[in-house]
């Protein structure tokens, strides 16, 4: 192995280890991503950073009033899980969530509740 590629490999490993979540006992790397939300035209719009995550490596589910987002990306040749759980208020209809992934930003749009109807226990959200 050439000296430069060895030092690059060592630096990559050091960088990777420095930012890894050492509290995970299963060896997966779990990061909770930052997000922000705004109310736009009566809908809650949530923006979650998902850099490097592809649409096919993203899973969004709703359990009760909690949105769970899990994305997987490769970082230095290893899988990294990006996660976010967001509790929504009862005023918003989580059964009608729309999701869009563009340029590393996941946008979730949740309309306001029109009338009370029975919600499924768990629902998977398709990504556009």
Topology (SSEs and partners):
Layout: H1 3-19, E1 29-32, E2 35-40, E3 43-49, E4 58-63, E5 66-75, E6 78-87, E7 98-102, E8 105-110, E9 122-124
Parallel strand pairs: 1-6
Antiparallel strand pairs: 2-3, 3-8, 4-5, 4-9, 5-6, 7-8
Please tell me about this protein's structure.
- This protein is mainly β.
- It has a single domain, classed as Immunoglobulin-like, CATH 2.60.40.
- Helix content is 13%, strand content 45%.
- It is built from one helix and nine strands; from the N terminus they run H-E-E-E-E-E-E-E-E-E.
- The strands form two sheets. The protein has a five-stranded mixed sheet with strand order 1-6-5-4-9, with no helix packed on it.
- A hairpin with a 2-residue loop joins strand 4 and strand 5.
- It is globular and about 50 Å long.
- The protein starts with a helix and ends with a strand.
- The N terminus is likely disordered.
């Amino acid at each position: 192995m050439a000296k430069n590629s060895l030092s690059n490999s060592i630096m990559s490993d050091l960088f990777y280890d420095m930012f890894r979540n050492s509290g995970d006992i299963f060896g997966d790397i779990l990061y909770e991503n930052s997000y922000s939300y705004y109310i736009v035209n009566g809908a809650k719009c949530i923006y979650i950073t998902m850099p490097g995550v592809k649409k096919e490596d993203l899973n969004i589910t709703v359990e009760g009033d909690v949105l769970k987002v899990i994305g997987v990306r490769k970082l230095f040749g290893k899988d990294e899980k990006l996660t976010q759980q967001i509790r929504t208020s009862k005023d918003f209809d989580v059964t009608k969530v729309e999701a869009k992934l563009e340029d590393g930003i996941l946008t979730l749009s949740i309309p306001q509740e029109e009338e009370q109807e029975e919600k499924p226990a768990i629902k998977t959200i398709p990504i556009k």
